[in-house]
Amino acid sequence: MDKKLPDAEDDRDRAILGDIRRIGWSVIQINPDNPNDPGPLYSFSVGLVHTHDHPEIILLGLKHAIAGQIINNIGGLVLLGQRIEPGRVYNDLASVPLVFVEVDPAYYSKYVAYALWLCGGSNFPMLQCVWPLKSGHFPWEEGYDKRGAAIQPLLGRRNPHPS
After folding, report:
1. 66, 91, 131, 138, 153 from 94: Cα distances, Å
2. What is the mean pLDDT of the chain?
3. pLDDT digits over 107-125, tens only?
4. How many CB atoms lie within 10 A of CB 24?
5. I need a labelling partner for 6 at 20 to 30 A (CA). Which of 15, 129, 141, 143 fits?
6. What average pLDDT score do residues 13-29 get?
7. Which of 30, 25, 26, 28 is nearest to 61 (CA)?
């Protein structure tokens, strides 16, 4: 895509924009620090929409090293021309199956401020990469331990069939 990137305001912005120019995306990793509302640990991409016209990816509840590796694996596939489809089960991106859910833009301001900054607002698609708990259950399946919702809240609805 031929979109203009925003101007950097500090060294972190410059590093993120440099990643996007160099490889096509950057991975932002958030470690909640509010003891009153700690929320989940999470990571997300910025730049996939800008450089590859592909939805950004967010992954909640996994350690940064693992989440970053998964997001970078996805970015590598996108770089090769593949597209991630919501609702489809992917067995080759991690050691467990993954499913992608379209994120409701109502969650963007809470979770992905850098993506809002990069895209100049909330008019962009994002997919949540959802992983099963140790039981093998996804959040929408019977038998899922509801305590998992604190670790991996769903930011949209699962599409029963890929689009």
Report:
1. 9, 7, 9, 15, 20
2. 89
3. 999 999 989 999 999 999 9
4. 18
5. 129
6. 93
7. 30
